[in-house]
Design goal:
By secondary structure, the protein is an alpha/beta fold. The protein contains ten helices and eleven strands. The protein has two domains: about 5-125 and about 255-265, Rossmann fold (3-Layer(aba) Sandwich), CATH 3.40.50.720; about 130-250, Dihydrodipicolinate Reductase, domain 2, CATH 3.30.360.10. Helix content is about 30%, strand content about 25%.
Length: about 270
Amino acid sequence: MRDGSSTRTKVAIAGLGAIGREVARALDAGIDGLELAAVSAASIDKHRPWLDKLGKVPAALPIEALADAADIVIECAPSKLVRSIVAPVVSRGKTAVVLSVGALLANEDLVDLARQHGGQIVVPTGALIGLDAMAAAAQGTIHSVRMVTRKPVAGLLGAPHLVEHKIEIEGITAPLRVFEGTAREAAKGFPANLNVAVALSLAGIGPDRTRVEIWADPTVSRNTHRIEVDSDSARFSMGIENIPSENPKTGKITALSVIACLRKLRAPLRVGT
């Protein structure tokens, strides 16, 4: 009896950090209509022990080969690799799921490339809530969007903005505001931390009108985002406290958001915009 694998959509994962591994395990456990076909990582040998325990071990390929091995490629890699992952995928008319959303601001032509070739760039909800409401409000007029992020100190250490401005946060005993500006500026200064701000801006009024505050807060243990939106259709606020994954810069819910996105692809019932 055929297992139907020939009709399954092939998925590849670029990057096997906390998010990539969680998504790989979910695909291996089974998501209707999808098959984990390939993975890529800087040090693939480091990941061999747990890869070999999967029900079906995916091919380990260089990043540039993923676009030919799969119909959907999920980017879970450092932001500097986004272009090398996404461009080959969308130029073949395939789908790239992008988590390093901030990198899209420096590679906006990737959207045009996807349009020209019938490809698609998908940005999962990630560590936010309310993107459906934001996208709906954007069909009318949004007057203002403001996001205040509070993170444990460990989640912000090493951010380029802190290094450039010589802002010391190790050992602080009270909350310290380390940034205030636009989502575009936040993405540049905190590339591993503020993909949520860029996703919010792309769903709404853009990265140059979306305002962001970032606080290093030794009193919190979760990555916390508070969003205030004023539009001609609704005024709403959103708050979320995300439990960090094994990578303190990333919340556990981010990987779950990718998995939910994948399940929606073949679901007989889709809830949400």
